[in-house]
């Protein structure tokens, strides 16, 4: 137990050391840059920071091995639980959409069937009337006209009757085809919703079993580990909510813009910036669930430094976003979205069309941040990607 407590304390000590060192290094970097005796290039300073980050991450991964295997197992199961819960939610949304479509199709089928029956009945009566009239031809009616005026009048009436009969027959045929199409669509959707319901029920059973299994592991945790478990769970839930907000912000807005490619602009518009944390896989020693750093952390700039749009686009989010703090998202079209986090102040608004280089935010340290920097992400169709594929370090 003491070993576990010491390990957890050591984690926080290393994190504090890391944060103090990195931002102290950034401050020192700025001083050196402004000094006339500067003999170290920006690239050298950047490499020094990255080397220190790598050293600290190595230490953190070593401490990770000291954490309880039971606690890690609890987290592994919780990841699966959250995945199943997400699947059930998505299945529920699909069933709602399908049910709405089924209700609509059912209503349309009822109206179409009633109209079809009325027109079919009328057409049948017309055919009976024609049959009962015997062998009288339209020509006979015309020849029995008393004068030219009567002839034209009778001709017009006959033409109207023929056209009406033709339209009626066509309408009956079209409505019959529409009914068949709607009925087939309805049957397909009813079959599909049965499959979705069965899958949802099956997933719910698996989810219940997973929760029971997880609880059995939780019961074996120490009090300190249970507190740590609660912190990790809260962090995961916050991350899931943030991801849902990000998806909603970009899916609910109709963006009429096309990403034309080309290099994006570096998002912090001052000289001397450095990447304090790169994109890629990294183990978090406490919250163990964060295996991917989803963007670049750009430091070396003062509080309030201008953060600019990396490319033309439309602002889809501008405000507070959990751990991101003050955050701006820009949709550039074709599934390309950039995210700028931890701002001191948001300087744009949702729906605004921005050009590359427009100031959108003041650099800050809001949200889950230990010092002034900009967290910059590039997402493609909702998936993280390395921002360095789109921007070049100045």
Sum this structure up briefly.
The chain has 394 residues and is of the alpha+beta class. Helix content is 57%, strand content 14%.
Can you put this structure into words, describing what you see?
By secondary structure, the chain is of the alpha+beta class. Helices cover 57% and strands 14% of the residues. The strands form three sheets. Strands 1, 4, 6, 7, 8, 10, 12 and 13 form an eight-stranded antiparallel sheet that branches. Strands 5-11-9 form a three-stranded antiparallel sheet, with no helix packed on it. Strands 2-3 form a two-stranded antiparallel sheet. A hairpin with a 5-residue loop joins strand 6 and strand 7 (326-333). Helix 3 runs antiparallel to helix 5 (148-218). The longest helix is centred in the middle third of the chain and has 71 residues, at 148-218. It is flat. The protein starts with a helix and ends in a 9-residue tail after the last strand.
């Amino acid at each position: 137990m003491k070993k576990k407590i010491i390990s957890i304390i050591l984690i926080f000590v290393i994190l504090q050391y890391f944060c103090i060192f990195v931002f102290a290094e950034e401050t020192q970097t700025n001083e050196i840059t402004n000094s006339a005796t500067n003999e170290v290039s920006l690239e050298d300073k950047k490499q020094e920071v990255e080397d220190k980050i790598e050293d600290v991450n190595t230490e953190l991964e070593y401490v990770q091995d000291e954490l309880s295997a039971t606690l890690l197992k609890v987290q592994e199961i919780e990841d699966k639980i959250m995945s199943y819960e997400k699947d059930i939610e998505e299945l529920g949304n699909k069933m709602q959409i399908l049910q709405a479509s089924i209700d609509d199709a059912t209503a349309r089928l009822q109206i179409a069937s009633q109209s079809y029956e009325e027109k079919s009945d009328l057409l049948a009566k017309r055919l009976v009337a024609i049959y009962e009239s015997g062998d009288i031809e339209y020509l006979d009616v015309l020849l029995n006209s008393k004068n030219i005026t009567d002839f034209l009048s009778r001709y017009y009436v006959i033409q109207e009757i023929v056209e009406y009969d033709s339209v009626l027959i066509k309408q009956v045929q079209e409505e019959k085809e529409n009914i068949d199409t709607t009925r087939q669509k309805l049957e397909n959707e009813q079959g599909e919703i049965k499959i979705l319901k069965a899958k949802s029920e099956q997933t719910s059973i698996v989810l219940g079993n997973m929760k029971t299994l997880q609880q059995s592991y939780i019961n074996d945790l120490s009090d300190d580990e249970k507190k740590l478990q609660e912190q990790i769970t809260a962090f995961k839930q916050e991350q899931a909510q943030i991801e849902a907000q990000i998806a909603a912000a970009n899916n609910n807005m109709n963006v009429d813009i096309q990403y034309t490619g080309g290099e994006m602009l570096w998002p912090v518009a001052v000289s001397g910036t450095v990447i304090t944390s790169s994109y890629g896989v990294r183990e978090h020693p406490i919250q163990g669930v964060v295996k991917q750093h989803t963007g670049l952390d750009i430091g070396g700039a003062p509080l309030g430094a201008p953060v600019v749009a990396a490319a033309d686009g439309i602002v889809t989010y501008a405000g507070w976003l959990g751990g991101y703090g003050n955050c701006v998202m820009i949709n550039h079209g074709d599934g390309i979205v950039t995210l700028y986090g931890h701002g001191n102040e948001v300087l744009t608004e949702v729906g605004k069309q921005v050009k590359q280089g427009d100031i959108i935010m003041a650099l800050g340290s809001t949200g889950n941040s230990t010092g002034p920097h900009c967290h910059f992400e590039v997402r493609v169709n909702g998936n993280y990607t390395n921002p360095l594929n789109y921007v070049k370090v100045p």
